[in-house]
Design brief:
CATH superfamily of the largest domain in chain A: Ferrous iron transport protein A (FeoA)
CATH topology of the largest domain in chain A: SH3 type barrels
Oligomer: homodimer
CATH class of the largest domain in chain A: Mainly Beta
Helix content of chain A: 40-55%
Largest sheet of chain A: 6 strands, antiparallel
Shape of chain A: globular
Strand order of the largest sheet of chain A: 3-8-4-5-6-7
Largest interface: A-B, 19 and 19 residues
Order of helices and strands of chain A: HHHEEHHHEEHEEEHE
Distance between the termini of chain A: 51 Å
Strand content of chain A: 15-25%
Chain lengths: ~220, ~220
DNA sequence: AACAGATTTTAGTCCCATCTAATTTCAAAT
DNA sequence: ATTTGAAATTAGATGGGACTAAAATCTGTT
């Protein structure tokens, strides 16, 4: 069994990898540890063939490393959903709890909750849940702020970095599947007036960068 | 936060404490580690005021140490019950899973599952669940083997050390609350014929030492 | 081409929790 | 009272994973 520390490194590298190779400093920041510690661990991970590492040039996951990262992410997202659906956790508390549980739950446990949840595809923030084999949907939603007046969009995913922001989303009832019409974007990166759930709301420009949406295609009645 | 190792030591010492002070070797056996390691840790625990420790004379929990041990045991037993009741785990698998989860679940998590379980008093093996303040029922049931022909007893608790035995109990439907009549004890520590759930069964002498029961007092109809 | 500043790595330390081997202490029996 | 065998402790080592301080490397700018 890989240590919790190693699992956390792999998970972090996976998340950061969207922007090409991953720098020592980026990992250090994400995990709140010193750069020197990261260098040390990257060498270990490289010797275990979990990452490809070149001094001063950053790091990438190997296939093996990615597989493990996705396994942990699978645990995390299933747990988040279970905490929310079965235990009624508020959105802003699920992340931390899942971060601790993800390293210790057994396959039996995961199988049970997956069944109970009905083989879900997305976690409560809208992230896709990797399959047992490590397949994961590639999603390409964009931040709300990128869209234009009059656009009607559907929320696909919320950024989950800031618990307070999540708490705000929950209070506002801005959640995955929410359908939003952009009424007005104030100039100079000002607030955005939107319409959803039957009323107008104003949301800040910064926050709107953390709501990831797609253009909403009206479905035909059947 | 105390390390998982420390939590495990305290839990183990608590369990062994029924027989007065606890020896280094007993702890070592229980945790599957060397005696030398235990001596080292006992010194640390003593310096943290979690145990009273005298070289060569064994160890006892302080009140503070006992409080923490009971907290962990509370986690463990609530989790065992939840795994069984809510997730349908088989009896023999709940212990290991709970051992891993008990160190990482939050108070929020425990509160939720306690609610869902309806503030239970016993875990699936029949052990009392400590309260939040660390109060725990003192129970005084005796092994089935101690009773005599004709006695009618109620199962209070099953020994949870051997998963295979638990699996056997489950298959036999010998569980806490089961009412058993002792029909015949074969001589020379032979097997015991018992009657319960409408049929006779024969159980081995060894196994009967792991079923803890009390004399059953017939309740009046009301 | 060389320098400045940021990034990264090296060198050396620390703490936790374990280990083995060697030694000490205890307690029971002669 | 001495011996002896078990139990416990000490001594010293190891690996994991973090740290700080110092040195090395990279990159962008002049």
């Amino acid at each position: 069994m890989l240590s919790q520390a190693i699992q956390d490194y792999l998970k972090t590298i996976y998340k950061l990898e969207e922007d090409g190779t991953v720098s020592t400093t980026a990992i250090a920041k994400e995990l709140n540890i010193s750069g020197a510690s990261v260098t040390g661990m990257l060498k270990r991970l490289a010797s275990m063939k979990l990452v490809d590492y070149n001094s001063y040039k950053g790091v990438r996951l190997t296939n093996e490393g990615r597989k493990i990262a996705l396994e942990i992410i699978r645990h995390h997202r299933l747990l988040e959903l279970y905490l929310r659906e079965a235990l009624g956790f508020p959105l802003e508390k699920i992340h931390d709890e899942a971060c601790r549980l993800e390293h210790v739950v057994s396959q039996d446990f995961l199988q049970k909750i997956e069944e109970i949840l009905g083989n879900p595809e997305y976690d409560p923030h809208g992230h896709p849940i990797p399959s047992k084999d490590g397949d994961i949907e590639i999603s390409n939603e964009k931040p709300l702020v990128n869209f234009r007046n009059g656009d009607v969009v559907i929320v696909k995913r919320l950024s989950d970095h800031d618990p307070q922001m999540l708490s705000y989303f929950e209070k506002m009832k801005i959640l995955p599947s929410t359908i939003i019409r952009i009424v007005d974007k104030a100039p100079f990166n000002g607030p955005i007036t939107v319409f959803f759930n039957g009323e107008s709301q104003i949301i800040g420009n910064e926050i709107s960068k953390n709501i990831f949406v797609e253009l909403y295609e009206e479905k035909e009645e059947n």
